[in-house]
């Protein structure tokens, strides 16, 4: 039971109503502000998400492009290495063939004349006192003191191969 | 066939480190190229360092490890090292003396040329002209490289000079004309050598590049040969093949140190910091091989990269290089610390021949004016920054603060670029304009009014502009 004087309740009723109305209005304002804030937040979040997605897309594209470049570079490197290795193989084959053909001269009928020329060349380089011996694989080796001349067929073939010019490239260029 | 190159000497008296002492020789000269046959069938190579009566000292390029002096046969070629020259070098990766390390056959050429080079009659030289565009904004915009020029990069340990050298080697062009690059790496670590191979892979596959790699653990005498081999290859590609050739040589300080070691082994009297007294003429004998020759197509442009020990620009190598070359691109530790790549110091850098290759008829009509105005503005910005350090930003005028903005924009918008980014000159110059227009028109007095009118329609003429305009004229 209220201790208020009679009639007070009635007199306060408008105040109560007004307070209630204000509270409702305030609550409505808060609700609408909260709604607006939520909308803003959602909008911001959506924009941020869009930005992050765009950045991720850009980063993904960049990383993808980088990875593609790396794969391409790897493929190019491997292809280049294969081509060079193939050229080397062709060149080594040429060396083997040249060496075999030059060594075969030892069994040729003109070999004695060739050996004679090689011996004369060796003596001309080292002098008449040079000691000349025939090499097992053909040609000769001359020695005079600390000097030596290698006129073996293998040495001649190697020198000829080393003096080759760009004509060798015709082995692998179309 | 002459006697030289056929007679083998077997009197190897001693092996000391990389040196072989051969006795009983006759008619042998300095710098002769030597072939050494080993008892096991292997072959090594060397250069004659010293001759005294019948004794020759030979520096063995591959070192003397595992060599038995009793089984050695030494052949003196009678001439300095000669290498085959021609287009066969393009696309190849070789060591510092030109032997392939890419798994391919030896390099063949239509003729052989001495690596010491054939001197060019000075009156047959054409002055450098027309640009080599590197795709690096700070270089193309402010220190344009000109065909036939020698323009060094001065750097310090820890700065990305190798990245810059590789980027320029990968990107440089000569306006659509036949262009090739010879990259000579000297004293590189193995990771650096691997980086260079990777960075230049694409250009190498395109057959526009020759790579010579001398690593830090390779013999020093090979390092002395490396730039000579590179220049010999480049000269033939340029003057016989009609190409414009850029020779990137890094690191020339490492080369000079190799020269110092060889000089000490020869027992020569040391000069400044123990470098040989002929360091200047030796460097000149390399740098002066660039240029153009009257009546011949092509050009050789040289971009040596050198590190200044302890950042000392008075060190003999940068000092003597600076006497010979035509400008320099200086890298700055401060810009590098700010994360800027390439960390070029624009005020310390200069291309003395820029006017021969940039501007009307060469690049773009406004190029030289824009570059001059940009450099002037950066110089003023530096002064303002020093002033701000003394009295604080609050004490600066509005115009001074604009200069600080310009400095920041210059580094971030103009200089900074990715190491794999090829920036066209057009883009570089547009960025320069963008940076310049952070200043009010009144501060751009070095630019012709017509250019400013085109860029700033409706803006007041320079004389009507107040000294400090707070409003953004753009």
TrEMBL record, chain A:
Highest taxon, organism lineage: Bacteria
Name of protein: Uncharacterized protein
Native source species: Streptomyces palmae
TrEMBL record, chain B:
Pfam family, any one: ATP-synt_ab_N
Domain (ATPase F1/V1/A1 complex alpha/beta subunit N-terminal): residue spans on this chain: 17-78
Keyword Acyltransferase among record annotations: no
Gene Ontology CC terms: proton-transporting ATP synthase complex
Keywords: ATP synthesis, Cell membrane, CF(1), Hydrogen ion transport, Ion transport, Membrane, Transport
Region (Disordered): 102-131
MF GO annotations: ATP binding; proton-transporting ATP synthase activity, rotational mechanism; proton-transporting ATPase activity, rotational mechanism
SUPFAM superfamilies (UniProt xref): P-loop containing nucleoside triphosphate hydrolases (SSF52540)
GO biological process: proton motive force-driven plasma membrane ATP synthesis
ATPase F1/V1/A1 complex alpha/beta subunit nucleotide-binding domain span: 135-351
Ranges where the ATP synthase A/B type C-terminal domain occurs: 357-453
Protein family: Belongs to the ATPase alpha/beta chains family.
Cited function: Produces ATP from ADP in the presence of a proton gradient across the membrane. The V-type beta chain is a regulatory subunit.
NCBIfam families for this protein: PRK04196.1
Descriptive protein name: V-type ATP synthase beta chain
Organism: Streptomyces palmae
Species classification: Bacteria, Bacillati, Actinomycetota, Actinomycetes, Kitasatosporales
């Amino acid at each position: 039971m209220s201790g208020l004087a009679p009639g007070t309740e009635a007199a306060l009723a408008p105040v109560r109503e007004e307070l209630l109305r204000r509270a409702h209005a305030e609550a409505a304002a808060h609700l609408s502000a909260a709604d607006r804030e939520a909308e803003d937040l959602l909008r911001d979040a959506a924009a941020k998400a869009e930005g992050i997605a765009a950045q991720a897309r850009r980063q993904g594209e960049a990383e993808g492009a980088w990875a593609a470049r790396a794969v391409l570079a790897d493929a190019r490197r491997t292809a280049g290495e294969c081509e060079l290795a193939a050229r080397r193989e062709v060149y080594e084959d040429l060396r083997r063939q040249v060496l075999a053909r030059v060594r075969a001269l030892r069994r040729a009928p003109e070999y004695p004349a060739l050996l004679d020329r090689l011996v004369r060349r060796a003596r001309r380089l080292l002098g008449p006192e040079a000691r000349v011996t025939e090499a097992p694989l053909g040609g000769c080796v001359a020695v005079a003191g600390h000097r030596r001349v290698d006129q073996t067929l293998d040495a001649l073939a190697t020198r000829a191969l080393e003096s080759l010019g760009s004509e060798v490239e015709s082995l692998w260029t179309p | 066939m002459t006697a030289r190159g056929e007679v083998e000497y077997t009197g190897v008296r001693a092996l000391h480190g990389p040196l072989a002492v051969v006795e009983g020789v006759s008619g042998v000269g300095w710098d002769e190229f030597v072939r050494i046959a080993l008892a096991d069938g292997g072959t090594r190579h060397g250069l004659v360092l010293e001759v005294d009566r019948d004794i020759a000292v030979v520096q063995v390029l591959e070192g003397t490890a595992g060599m038995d002096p009793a089984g050695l046969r030494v052949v003196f070629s009678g001439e300095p090292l000669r290498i085959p020259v021609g287009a066969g070098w393009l696309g190849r990766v070789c060591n510092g003396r030109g032997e392939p390390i890419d798994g391919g056959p030896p390099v063949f050429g239509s003729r052989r040329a001495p690596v010491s080079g054939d001197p060019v009659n000075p009156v047959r030289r054409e002055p450098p002209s027309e640009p080599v565009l590197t795709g690096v904004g700070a270089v193309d915009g402010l220190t344009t490289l000109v065909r036939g020029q020698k323009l060094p990069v001065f750097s310090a340990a820890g700065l990305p000079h190798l990245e810059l050298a590789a980027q320029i080697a990968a990107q440089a062009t000569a306006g659509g004309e036949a262009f090739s690059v010879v990259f000579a790496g000297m004293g590189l670590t193995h990771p650096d050598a691997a980086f260079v191979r990777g960075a230049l892979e694409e250009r190498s596959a395109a057959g526009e590049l020759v790579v010579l790699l001398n690593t830090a653990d390779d013999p020093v005498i090979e390092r002395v040969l490396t730039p000579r081999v590179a220049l010999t290859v480049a000269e033939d590609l340029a003057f016989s093949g009609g190409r414009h050739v850029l020779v990137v040589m890094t690191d020339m300080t490492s080369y000079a140190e190799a020269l110092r070691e060889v000089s000490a082994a020869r027992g020569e009297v040391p000069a400044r910091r123990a470098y040989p007294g002929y360091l200047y003429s030796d460097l000149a004998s390399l740098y002066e091989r660039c240029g153009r020759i009257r009546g011949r197509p092509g050009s050789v442009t040289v971009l040596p990269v050198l590190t200044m020990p302890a950042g000392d620009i008075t060190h003999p190598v940068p000092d003597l290089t600076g006497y010979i070359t035509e400008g320099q691109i200086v890298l700055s530790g401060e810009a590098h610390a700010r994360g800027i790549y390439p960390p070029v110091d624009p005020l310390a850098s200069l291309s003395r021949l820029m006017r021969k290759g940039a501007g009307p008829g060469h690049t773009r009509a406004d190029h030289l004016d824009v570059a001059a105005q940009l450099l002037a503005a950066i110089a003023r910005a530096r002064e303002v920054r020093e002033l701000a350090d003394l009295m604080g930003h609050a004490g600066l005028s509005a115009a001074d603060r604009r200069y600080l903005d310009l400095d920041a924009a210059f580094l971030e918008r103009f200089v900074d670029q990715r190491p794999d980014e090829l920036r066209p000159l057009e883009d570089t110059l547009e960025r320069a304009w963008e940076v310049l227009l952070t200043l009010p028109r009144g501060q751009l007095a070095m630019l012709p009014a017509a250019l400013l009118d085109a860029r700033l329609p409706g803006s007041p003429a320079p004389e009507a502009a107040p000294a400090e305009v707070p409003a953004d004229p753009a």
